[in-house]
Design a protein that fits this description.
32% helix; 6 strands; alpha/beta; 6-stranded parallel sheet; 8 helices; single chain; 254 residues
Length: 254
């Protein structure tokens, strides 16, 4: 936690193909950086399929963890943070975590928590979202198949309506919150065209957003100086400055 009153609260969702979490590079190190900038940061260990599932494919027989478990966990986190904090509440995610936070920014008017008998009295809409080198599409050519499998499971992944329903480029709405989007063209894990699809959808719906695309930098650099290059080492300052420029949002003095 930062010293003094936080500028905003940020829920951090590490990546890991919806099968595991990169808790250090994309979780705790991100939270420490945000706290040093005056933001309250919470690392969310949302439910994932698991490494054993990746190796054994046991979810072809048992349900395991799959959609909507992940978005339920994030919505619950947004609810709990918002009930305790009166300022802006946003979400930042990496890779599959980027898909998760963008899902929260698009599907906030669906209360996934109702399956647990929870009816929040606060808004589940994040005030801003920051998908970093995110998974976006589940139906177009640049799909990241491991993340799609992790979220949907062995049988649900075969259903076209489910793939379409969670392809984020198809569900940007007029009230989608402001978006900070960033990736690298040479990303060897998640095809850079995922972010291009999202940028195009956000632009078409006139959603305030900043899309930054670096030529090099790869994937999985998070907030780790050891994994960043001369380009990706700039993204954290860029994000903080972007927040300060959003009227009525985190860090803005207007």
């Amino acid at each position: 936690m930062p010293e003094g009153e936080p500028r905003a609260a940020v829920i951090v969702c590490p990546g890991g193909s919806y099968h595991w979490h990169d808790m250090e590079t994309e979780g705790t190190s991100v939270a420490r950086w945000l706290a040093s900038e005056g933001y309250a940061a919470y690392v969310l260990k949302y439910r994932v399929a698991g490494k054993f599932e990746f190796a054994s494919k046991y979810r072809s027989l048992l349900r395991g963890h799959r959609h909507p478990d992940m978005i339920c966990d994030l919505q619950r986190a947004i609810q709990l943070v918002r009930e305790r904090y009166d300022g802006p509440v946003g979400a930042m995610g990496f890779s599959a975590g980027g898909h998760l936070v963008m899902s929260a920014g698009e599907f906030f008017d669906t209360n996934f928590l109702s399956r647990y008998g929870i009816e929040p009295e606060v808004s589940l809409r994040p005030d801003f979202v920051a998908p970093i080198y995110p998974v976006v599409t589940f139906c177009a050519a640049p799909v990241h198949k491991r993340s799609r499998l992790g979220l949907l499971g062995e049988w649900t992944v075969l259903r076209k309506e489910m793939r379409d329903s969670l392809s984020l480029e198809k569900h940007v709405k007029a009230d989608t919150p402001p978006v900070f989007l960033l990736n690298c063209v040479d990303d060897p894990i998640v095809d850079y065209r995922n972010s291009v699809l999202l940028d195009s959808a956000l632009t078409a719906r006139h959603i305030p957003h900043l899309y930054t695309q670096y030529a090099t930098g790869g994937h999985g650099f998070g907030a780790s100086p050891k994994k960043q290059n001369e380009y990706t080492s700039q993204w954290q300052e860029l994000f903080i400055n972007w927040l300060k420029e959003i009227p009525g949002q985190a860090g803005n003095d207007e």
